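About this split. The held-out portion is used to measure sequence recovery: a designer receives only the C-alpha cells and must propose an amino acid at every position. Recovery is the fraction of positions where the proposal matches the reference. Here is one held-out target exactly as it appears in the evaluation file.
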C-alpha cells in the first residue's frame, strides 16, 4: 500500500520539507499471512528499514490504539512534574545496558518499563510512580499489544528469529516514554544521529521531528505521524541476525522550525534475549 498524503503532509511538501514516502504495512494482513503484504514488509525491511504499521483493522492493534490517549496522558502528566519529584524514580539497580526508570539526558528525559519486570512483579516494580500505577492496566495492555505486534512483524520476516526472542527468557525489551521538547532555535538542536541497538523499534509520536536517511533514495526526509499507525524501524540486532539483509537505518530527532513545544514519544523496543547479546559481546 502506498503512503497517502493528507493535507498537512502535502502542505509541508509544498513548503520544501522533504517528506519520506514509506510503505504502510497492515498488521491485520500480516496476521492473515497475506502473500503481497509479507512481500511488502520484506521489501521495506530490506530497502529503507523504515515503514508504518497500520493497526486499525486488527483486533490487537485496535486495543493498542484504544489505550494510546491514556498512555500519552500519563507521559505528559509525568514529565511536567518538577524534577525533584522525578529524581526519586532513578534506578540504581541496573546493568549498563538498561535504561529503566527515569533518566535525563541532553535535551530529553525518559522513563522505561521492562517487559521482564512487568511479567515477574507487575505493579510492584521498583520506583514505579503512582501516576503509572493509577493507569497500570492500560499501560500494560498497551505494552503487551506493542510486543505482540513486534513479534508478528519479526515472525513475518522469518521464523528463524523467534528462537532469540522468547518471552520466557531474559531480555532488555521494554516500553519507553520520552519527553524531548523542541527548542526556541533550530540552530541550537544538537545532532543525535544514531541507529537503534535492538531488533525492532515501534514508535508513536504526534509532532514532526523524526529525520531519516533513506538509502534507496539516497536522501534525508522527515517521517510524519500517521493516524492509526506506528512508525517501525529495523534495528542493529536484526540487521546482524539477517546477515545484513535487513537494514538498520540512520536517523535523528530534530525539528522543522524554530519554536519551543513539548513533544512526547512512546517507544517500544523489542530486543534479543540477553544470552545472545552476551554471546556476541564475548566474541568481540
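Reference sequence for scoring:
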Amino acid at each position: 500500500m502506498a503512503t497517502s498524503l493528507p493535507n498537512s503532509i502535502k502542505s509541508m511538501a509544498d513548503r520544501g520539507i522533504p517528506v519520506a514516502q514509506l510503505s504502510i504495512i497492515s498488521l491485520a494482513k500480516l496476521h492473515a499471512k497475506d502473500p503481497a503484504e509479507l512481500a511488502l514488509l520484506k521489501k521495506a525491511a530490506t530497502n529503507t528499514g523504515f515503514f508504518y504499521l497500520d493497526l486499525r483493522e486488527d483486533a490487537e492493534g485496535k486495543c493498542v490504539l484504544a489505550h494510546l490517549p491514556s498512555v500519552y496522558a500519563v507521559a505528559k502528566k509525568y514529565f511536567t512534574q518538577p524534577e525533584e519529584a522525578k529524581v526519586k524514580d532513578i534506578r540504581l539497580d541496573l546493568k549498563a545496558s538498561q535504561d529503566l526508570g527515569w533518566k535525563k539526558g541532553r535535551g530529553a528525559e525518559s522513563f522505561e518499563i521492562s517487559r521482564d519486570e512487568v511479567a515477574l512483579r507487575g505493579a510492584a516494580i521498583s520506583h514505579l510512580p503512582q501516576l503509572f500505577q493509577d493507569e497500570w492496566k492500560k499501560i500494560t495492555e498497551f505494552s503487551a499489544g506493542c510486543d505482540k505486534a513486534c513479534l508478528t512483524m519479526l515472525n513475518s520476516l522469518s521464523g528463524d528469529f523467534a528462537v532469540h526472542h522468547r518471552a520466557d527468557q531474559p531480555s532488555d525489551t521494554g516500553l519507553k516514554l520520552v519527553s524531548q521538547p523542541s527548542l526556541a532555535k533550530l540552530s541550537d538542536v544538537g545532532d543525535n544521529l544514531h541507529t537503534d541497538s535492538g531488533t525492532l523499534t515501534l514508535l508513536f509520536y504526534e509532532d514532526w521531528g523524526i529525520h531519516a536517511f533513506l538509502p534507496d533514495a539516497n536522501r534525508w526526509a522527515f517521517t510524519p505521524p500517521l493516524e492509526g499507525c506506528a512508525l517501525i524501524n529495523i534495528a542493529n540486532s536484526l540487521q546482524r541476525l539477517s546477515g545484513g539483509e535487513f537494514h538498520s537505518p540512520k536517523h535523528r530527532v530534530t525539528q522543522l522550525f524554530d519554536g519551543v513545544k513539548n513533544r512526547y514519544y512512546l517507544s517500544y523496543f523489542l530486543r534479543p534475549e540477553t544470552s545472545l547479546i552476551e554471546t556476541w559481546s564475548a566474541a568481540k
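Annotator remark: The first helix runs from residue 7 to 14.
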